[in-house]
S58 family peptidase
Amino acid sequence: MALKHDPVLPPHIGGLKAGPRNAITDVADVTVGHATLADGPIQTGVTVVLPHPGDIYRDRVPAAATVLNGFGKSIGLMQVEELGVLETPIALTNTFSVGTIAQAQIRQCVAANPQCGQRLPTVNPLVFECNDGYLNDIQAMAIAEQHYRNACAAAGSTFVQGAVGAGRGMSSFGVKGGIGSASRYTPIANGFQYTVGALVLSNFGRPSQLTLAGRRIGPSLETRLASTTQAQNGPEKGSVILIIATDAPLDARQLRRLSLRAGAGLARTGSVFGHGSGDIALAFSTAYTLPQDVGRAMPDIAMLHDALLDPLFQAVADSTEQAIVHSLWRAATVVGRDGHHRQAFLDLMADYIPAFSEQSL
């Protein structure tokens, strides 16, 4: 499904060039799929990121994560930290659906690998979450295993952003949040060019904090929200999940360093990694795979030198910030449980925002 052109183009973050889709799927072989539930009080869904089209359990990819603030209920991070690999697609959903999606991932792996957990090792499901309970009746636990399978079946290189999939019920800075994505090309001193892509599940931030392309517009946003029924009081209780993909040949230690730099892009938007916010970043590389089967040879890969990582760090920060901007720009107004609603950012602020364009900044 093609992306729609925005009536007001978002600012282009930084000086690096974006890929043709300006999305995480500009990293070759990466695909993204959604399953969206939008029916009255049920406003939720599932989003999956597939690192490659094969069996990820059999051909694992190197990965690492950084927990910026650990107020979260994700599953699978401990083994990723220990072994430095992904064994399933990366799944995003709401807080109360983590167990259901993990079970769906296990069933998916067992169906493809009947000896999983018997002759073969058990699989490590990987599910991230944010709390969409303001817009979604999270207690209904409407997400089923089929929704995960549907999201995987829908995965492609072109995908919708905004109030879709896991982002359907999410809120950011007092307005509608959700799924956002971006990419950057990174020329390296060794003569190579690599791609970095980011995908975010944006559900964080107080209105007064919002900074857009270096411009502090939070106070104006807060004033406008104060005149509506959407004024936000009390401490921040959101979260953000930051997924980074690259085709650069990196090991798990280097990927952890990349994941940490996603926090720089997050901070630029105004986040202070609030007490009640689960802020988690994960980075993976598609440059090679690591076999599950001990009888297969390990890859002979020359890793990128640490001294050449700075352009990738820049690309991570810029694409993360851009993805958060896109999550606001692409989201539509949503009305959910008990009449709760979050207005689309552009509906509320379009007349305030200068004539931003992808070329002007």
About this structure: The chain has a mean pLDDT of 93. The first helix runs from residue 77 to 83. The first strand starts at residue 31 and ends at 39.
